[in-house]
Design a protein that fits this description.
Number of strands of chain A: 6
Largest interface: A-B, 32 and 32 residues
Shape of chain A: elongated
Strand content of chain A: 35-45%
CATH class of the largest domain in chain A: Alpha Beta
Order of helices and strands of chain A: HHHEEHEEEE
Oligomer: homodimer
Helix content of chain A: 25-40%
Distance between the termini of chain A: 78 Å
CATH architecture of the largest domain in chain A: Roll
Strand order of the largest sheet of chain A: 2-1-6-5-4-3
Structural class of chain A: alpha+beta
Chain lengths: ~160, ~160
């Protein structure tokens, strides 16, 4: 009975189903959209901490915009690439962030992350400058199941006089 | 034939359906979530332009946060109320904004608006100060069908030296 063709077919169908599910989960990072967004946010932060321009840009969707403070928004991947290149070239530049909250719509294709950032660099006079603040990123699930940045905006907790 | 009971019942059912639909649309502002968010954003901006603290706070959900630049975030309705009171009390204060884009998830309970703001006030020395910038607001549909602010964040387009 254990090796009957019918049982084997059933087992094969079950295995195929499990494999298909695992592949889908691997693509999106997780079957839970809020967890998948958190994972994408963490990986994006790691790319920026490593000052990897290509990888940092790769987390942005085709129509992404980064609403940079004290400057006009960086609209689209080329403007975003230029912005990452500029900031990563600042002497002593270090940017790290961490999501404190992620959530997604029930339909599972749109969500957001919220978190805090820390930033430091060396200014023209050789002085160490430090900043910290907060951000909101709107994420959109792509056709391939990956989550990409749609809108990103951040601001400082510090007073301008600081 | 025109006044047959069967036709009248059908007409009554149709009218009830239309009324129910109109009531649902009236509650949410629109049956299209992106349009409803745009409408809520416009009404929120009108309340802020009128410096109406109660009305400005009423557009914020129970767990809303406004991520104010150059200050820690205003977490929850009481902190948001205090913040609106403070800024509306600044001499010559005027804040206006306009959504340039709204979108919602397919499930229709989560979405965002993006737009630009203009701000002016009179500083301690009597000088007129002007600022303009951009914002992203995450909106959540409430149980009663209304859209409320969940997260709001904005920053200036101007350099700090301005």
């Amino acid at each position: 009975m254990h090796g009957s063709p019918r049982r084997l077919v059933r087992l094969a169908v079950l295995l195929l189903f499990v494999l298909a599910s695992l592949t889908a989960v691997a693509k999106s990072g997780s079957s839970n959209p809020a967890v998948a967004i958190h994972s994408a946010d963490d990986q994006w932060a790691a790319a920026a901490l490593a000052k990897d321009v290509d990888k940092s840009v790769s987390f942005c969707g085709p129509d992404a915009a980064i609403l940079v403070p004290n400057a006009p928004a960086a609209e689209g991947k080329e403007a975003i690439r230029k912005w990452f290149q500029e900031i990563f070239n600042i002497p002593g530049f270090k940017l790290s962030w961490r999501a404190t909250e992620t959530a997604a719509a029930k339909s599972g294709e749109l969500g957001y992350s919220r978190g805090t950032y820390e930033l430091s660099f060396t200014d023209a006079s050789g002085k160490q400058v430090s900043d910290h603040g907060k951000y909101v990123t709107v994420w959109k699930k792509q056709a391939d199941g990956s989550w990409k940045v749609l809108r990103d905006i951040f601001n400082s907790d510090l007073s301008p006089a600081h």
